[in-house]
Amino acid sequence: MTTRRVFGAVLVFVAAGLAVAATFLSAYSVQVELQGRTLRYEASSWVTERDDFRGALMLAPLDYGEPAVGAALVMALSVVLAFRMPAARVGSLLGAGVLAGVAWTAIAGVQGTIDKLRELEAPVPFDVEQGDGVTVLVVAAGVGVVSAVLHQELPRRVVSEPIVTEGGAVIHQIEGDESETPPYGFPVIVEPQEPQEPQEPQEPQEPREPKEQKSD
Amino acid sequence: MLLLVLGAALAVAGSLQDTYRTAHREVTWTSTLWISKSSLPDGREDDAYFAVGWPVIVAAVLMAVAGLLVLREQTEFVGRSVAMGAAGALAGAVFVYLMLLRSQAEDMSKWPVDTGHPPSLTVLGGTYMLGLAAVIGLAGAALAQRKQEEPSPEDEEDVVVHQLDSDDDTPPFGIEIPLEEQQETR
């Protein structure tokens, strides 16, 4: 596994963690200043965190927690499985795609709710805000898409078929092997006496160096 | 590829259809992914409460483009990756939409009943089309992945034999080795 893919796998985990964390942060909040008191409604994607209005505003959480956690699970599982089954790597793309779709739709849902609340002609001025949870979810989706791409294996032909241009040579350096390349590219077993007889298995010999080299 | 394009077409068509209808105090609002239309005599139209048309359209377009990219050998890898991401995005968007509708229905069930008509939310055909599009898209993306894995083992097993015009036997090492005397004279 290359460094790029390991880095991608770690980032996929980070994105999945961010996505799950985002669902527990505030999605949107409504705040009213009334006679010197501050009344506040605040909801995550799971539950109403705070409701000083005691249900009078009839607001409810926007349920995007389950899809976001589902996407995070797909991403994390695919990274774990990819260590044993390389084909599972594509699951991180699927999870990142789901997370991106979830984040965009969640933003649209929260923005729609905020716009509707702002349009209300309430007798008391109130503030409606998008919470940090939606912002973190978008960041998680961005990190998720980038990391899922890093996590993939590029097409094999690009790696295995280096393009040799005219006049240029591709040199592969084998680590830990200090020996020089033999004259024919591999050790040649020289049989000067009886080449017709079947070969006996023998240790490969060092090729003889030419006695004299002629340079042009 | 056909499944990807079919899923994309269904998603676009579903986004234009009515997805749900709410009824409260003898007024109904019928929504698509873009707008809500009331049953009042003035036929008032408003932005939909959950206006998630763009995520669905963008995911559908990406899915259709991926379906075309998969067909060409040079762009097959990109096509497969985009197909999986776009099908996931469509599925994620539809999943969230269904959850938003569920929370809306639960929310409405708590509203006060004052005229004998309890508030209600009815899911319409557009939502079912979107759900079907998401499933078809995921199936298409999964099949696009399988397609690329099949030919690779065959390529490794097949040996390509090139027959040259010469009748000479293949030398013992596969290449002709010149004798040392010949090498020295070069």
From TrEMBL, chain A:
<feature type="transmembrane region" description="Helical">
    <location>
        <begin position="64"/>
        <end position="83"/>
    </location>
</feature>
<feature type="transmembrane region" description="Helical">
    <location>
        <begin position="134"/>
        <end position="150"/>
    </location>
</feature>
<keyword id="KW-0472">Membrane</keyword>
<feature type="transmembrane region" description="Helical">
    <location>
        <begin position="90"/>
        <end position="114"/>
    </location>
</feature>
<protein>
    <recommendedName>
        <fullName>Tryptophan-associated transmembrane protein (Trp_oprn_chp)</fullName>
    </recommendedName>
</protein>
<feature type="signal peptide">
    <location>
        <begin position="1"/>
        <end position="21"/>
    </location>
</feature>
<feature type="region of interest" description="Disordered">
    <location>
        <begin position="175"/>
        <end position="216"/>
    </location>
</feature>
<feature type="compositionally biased region" description="Basic and acidic residues">
    <location>
        <begin position="205"/>
        <end position="216"/>
    </location>
</feature>
<keyword id="KW-1133">Transmembrane helix</keyword>
<keyword id="KW-0732">Signal</keyword>
<keyword id="KW-0812">Transmembrane</keyword>
UniProtKB/TrEMBL annotation, chain B:
<keyword id="KW-1133">Transmembrane helix</keyword>
<feature type="transmembrane region" description="Helical">
    <location>
        <begin position="121"/>
        <end position="144"/>
    </location>
</feature>
<keyword id="KW-0472">Membrane</keyword>
<feature type="region of interest" description="Disordered">
    <location>
        <begin position="145"/>
        <end position="186"/>
    </location>
</feature>
<feature type="transmembrane region" description="Helical">
    <location>
        <begin position="48"/>
        <end position="70"/>
    </location>
</feature>
<protein>
    <recommendedName>
        <fullName>Tryptophan-associated transmembrane protein (Trp_oprn_chp)</fullName>
    </recommendedName>
</protein>
<keyword id="KW-0812">Transmembrane</keyword>
<feature type="transmembrane region" description="Helical">
    <location>
        <begin position="82"/>
        <end position="101"/>
    </location>
</feature>
